[in-house]
Amino acid sequence: MANGVFRITRRSATAALGLAMGAGALAAWPRRPVAGKDADVIVVGAGLAGLFCATWLTDAGYRVKVLEAGERIGGRLWTLDRLPGAPEAGGAQIGQSYARIRYVAERFGVRIVDAPARREETLIACGDRVINSRDWAAAPGNPMPDEFKSTPPGAALFAAAARDNPFAWAGDWRTKTAFARDVSAGAFLDRLGFSPEARALAEISLNANALDEYSILNVWRSLQIFQQDAEIGPAGAAKGGAQRIPEAMAAALGDAVVTRFRARQVRPDGDGVAITDGVRTFRADYCVLALPFPALNAIEIDPAPTGAQARAIASLPYTQILQLHLEPETAFWEDDGLPLAMWTDGPLERLFVTRDRESGAPLGLVAWINGEGARALATLDDGALSALAAKELKRLRPASRGAVRLRRTMRWTQGASYAGGAYMHWAPGQAERWATVMGAPLGRVHFAGEHLSYLHTGMEGAMESGQNAAEAIMGLSR
C-alpha cells in the first residue's frame, strides 16, 4: 500500500491466489449425490472462465459438469498448432499480474516463459507510398497533429490517451469520475485537434469497430493494466501455446468435461436447474453460463433477462476481427531489404510476423483486420481472400511477386463465430449503465466471461469472472 494505492506484484498476487485455492481445498467437504441430479453445478462453456470456475468449485468439494458445444477446449484461446510457428488466433501474452493464469499454469505443469522482447521494425504504407516507420514523422502528407507527427498511425490513439490517463488503479474505470469523462475515442481525438484524415488512419488499427462507438474508458483501462504489468516485469507466454492452459485444466477435470453439447435451454427444475440441447438434459443445483453474450443470445433462459441486463446481452459490442494466416513461398523481405511487419491503409490493415518460438526466424505473416473491414471481408471465401492477400502484397512489396499462400482464416466476426467477435468493448455510456447489472444472477443461473471482469481484461479477466461466479455459488450453498 503506497499513498493509498494498492500495488500488485507478481509474487504477492500469485501467492495470495495460491493461499485462496488452498483454503478452498481445505474447506472442501464430501457432498452427497442428490438423486436425479448430474452435478451440484453445471458450467456451460469450456473457455478459460468456465474451466477456472469449474476448477475452483471442484477444489471446494463440489461435483461439477462442464458442457462445451464444440470438440475443442479453450474457447477464444486457440493455438494453431498445425501452422508454422504455431501462431495464436486468440490470447497470447500473459502479463506479470495475471496471477490466476500463472497459478494454474504452474499447478498443471504448463511452463510460462518470458515473451521475446523484440520490437518489430515496421513499414507504413499509405496509398502508394511505402516508408519505414522511423521516417513517418517527416513523411509528405502525414496528417497527424504536430505533437503526434512521430507517432506511427497505429499507436496514435494510445499515445494521445496516455498523456491524459486519469486511472491510477485497475478499478478506476467504474467510478463516477470516470463515467463523467466517458466519451467516444473519436470525440477524444477531435478535442486534441485530429483532422478527419488523421482520425481515419488512427481508426485502421483500432482494437474495436469504430472510433465513434468506442469509449475512451477502454483505452485508459488498457493503458493502466499495461503500466501495472510493466512495473512488475516482462510479459510471458505459455510454452507450446496458450491453449495448453485450458487443455491442462480440462484434463484435470477429466470426464466432468462433456464436449459436443450445445445448450439450447436453461430452465428451473424443482429445486435446481435443467440444461438441455434438445436431446440430452443435465440437472444440477446451479448453472454458470460462461459464454460471450452473442453465444448467450442463442440460449433460451428461464427466467429471461429483463431491463438493462437484457439490453446489455443483446447489444454489448464485440470487436470484429479477421485474421489471414499467410505463408510466403519466398523470403521476399531478404530481396527488398525491408522490414517484414507492416501497417497499411489498404484491405490487409496490419501484418504481423509469425516467428519460430525458439530461433526467432520469420515463418509467416498474419494479416490482422479489424472493425468494418473485417466484417466485410469475412463474407469472402478463402480462395478470394488468398487472391486478395497475394495481390495486395504484390502491390506493396513487388518482391513478393504475389507468392503468398493462405494457410488459415480466422473469422472472429458476427455470424461466422459463436462468440460474435474477438472480445467485448464498451461503447460510450454503456459502462455506467450496464457494468454492475449485466452479470447479475437469474435465480440459480449465474454468468461468467471476460466481459464481466472488473480488475483485468482478456485472459485474466475471464479467469477472474469464473472465480467470482464460483464464489457466489459457494456463498449461497453453504
Tell me the layout of helices and strands.
Blueprint: H1 10-26, E1 39-44, H2 48-59, E2 64-67, H3 99-107, E3 112-114, E4 122-126, E5 129-132, H4 156-162, H5 176-180, H6 185-191, H7 196-204, H8 216-232, E6 236-238, H9 244-253, E7 257-258, E8 265-269, E9 272-276, E10 281-290, H10 293-296, E11 300-301, H11 307-315, E12 321-328, H12 332-336, E13 341-344, E14 350-355, E15 362-370, H13 371-377, H14 382-396, E16 404-412, H15 430-434, E17 445-448, H16 458-477
Parallel strand pairs: 1-2, 1-10, 2-7, 4-13, 8-11, 10-17
Antiparallel strand pairs: 3-6, 4-5, 8-9, 9-10, 12-15, 12-16, 13-14, 14-15
Helix pairs in contact: 1-2, 1-3, 2-9, 2-16, 4-8
Q: Strand percentage, roughly?
A: 15-25%
User: Could you name the CATH homologous superfamily of the largest domain?
Assistant: FAD/NAD(P)-binding domain
Largest sheet: 8 strands, mixed
CATH classification class of the largest domain: Alpha Beta
| Integer count of domains | 3
Overview of the molecule:
- The chain is an alpha/beta fold and 478 residues long.
- The chain has three domains: 10-79 and 239-315 and 431-477, FAD/NAD(P)-binding domain, CATH 3.50.50; 122-232, no CATH class; 319-412, Polyamine Oxidase, Chain A, domain 2, CATH 3.90.660.
- The protein contains 16 helices and 17 strands.
- It has helices at residues 10-26, 48-59, 99-107, 156-162, 176-180, 185-191, 196-204, 216-232, 244-253, 293-296, 307-315, 332-336, 371-377, 382-396, 430-434, 458-477; strands spanning 39-44, 64-67, 112-114, 122-126, 129-132, 236-238, 257-258, 265-269, 272-276, 281-290, 300-301, 321-328, 341-344, 350-355, 362-370, 404-412, 445-448.
- Strand 8 (265-269) and strand 9 form a beta hairpin.
- Helix 2 runs parallel beside helix 9 and helix 2 runs parallel beside helix 16.
- Mean pLDDT is 91; it is low at 1-8 and 25-30.
